[in-house]
Amino acid sequence: MLRPRYPTLKCLALSPPGCLMSPELATSSASFVTSVVLGKDIIARASLLSFQALRDQVLSLIGRSKVNKTHIMRQALSWRHPDELLHATEDDAGHTVFTTQLLNYRTMLQRIQAKEPIHEMWLPGRIVHLKRLVRSRGHGFCLCCRPGGGVCCTERTHYDYVWAHQTDFLQIYVARTMLDDHFPDKVHAVLQDMHQD
Q1: The organism sits in which domain of life (predicted)?
Q2: What angle do CA 45, 46, 50 make, to 5 degrees?
Q3: Using CA atoms, how far apart are residues 17 and 44, in angstroms rounded to an integer?
């Protein structure tokens, strides 16, 4: 909207939603929009298609479960090998009432989506992805707090930036930081830390 009046205008989009622009518009905005996305930010990956894919993955996991769902929730805090809780494929799970209902549900969704296709939506412009660096330490851990930020961690997390493409953000990753990575104070703190390093 401001582009005709201010042709040299540049826009920096911090943690924009993933369902903001059509692929054509996102590509054409690359000359004047730069999006910054931190880690596994769920909002930057949010779109109708990505939430449908997440729903389908969760339903598939439920169908492949060897044990009841309460048992899985109790085990969430302790580490168990996935083979102990899940069948390798849905076919290995056998035919249950749930798998039959899931098959009927998927068939119904395919009919609906054939009539009313869902359009893919992307993040705007060029994308700078602030990715968490994994560094192992040979000794203990340190406790650090960001002054005034109230963000504490057991070990300092380092980030690096990479240029990314919109298609890198079409899937939601379930991670402990997927919500925190969207918060403005965390994005600000990471950018400040990267500037000082």
Answers
A1: Eukaryota
A2: 85
A3: 4
